[in-house]
Design goal:
Number of helices: 1
Distance between the termini: 21 Å
Largest sheet: 5 strands, antiparallel
Order of helices and strands: HEEEEEEE
Oligomer: single chain
Shape: globular
Structural class: mainly beta
Length: about 80
């Protein structure tokens, strides 16, 4: 899936998807942006402050990878040792 044409990243931080997955560990992450896909799904991009690894979660908690061509849903995501 690619970004919808003409839509820019949404910049209002939303920590709920990450909080729902890992709870108190959110302080180890930066909120980067929210990206809306063509189908309306909103993907939130978080970046770990130490490892610099990205975590991409939709509002409903699904995990996503950015492939260079867009986002693809993943079944077995990981967040710093937490299985999703």
């Amino acid at each position: 899936m690619n970004f919808a044409p003409g839509l820019s990243p949404e910049i209002e931080p939303d920590w709920k998807p990450l909080e729902d997955k890992i709870g108190a560990g959110c302080s180890e992450y930066m909120y980067i942006a929210g990206y809306r896909l063509e189908d309306g799904t909103l993907i939130h991009a978080y970046k770990h402050v130490t490892t610099r690894q990205y975590v991409n979660l939709s509002d409903d908690g699904r995990s996503w990878d950015f492939t260079g061509d867009g986002y693809r849903e993943t079944e077995n995501g990981k967040i710093q040792g937490h299985s999703l």
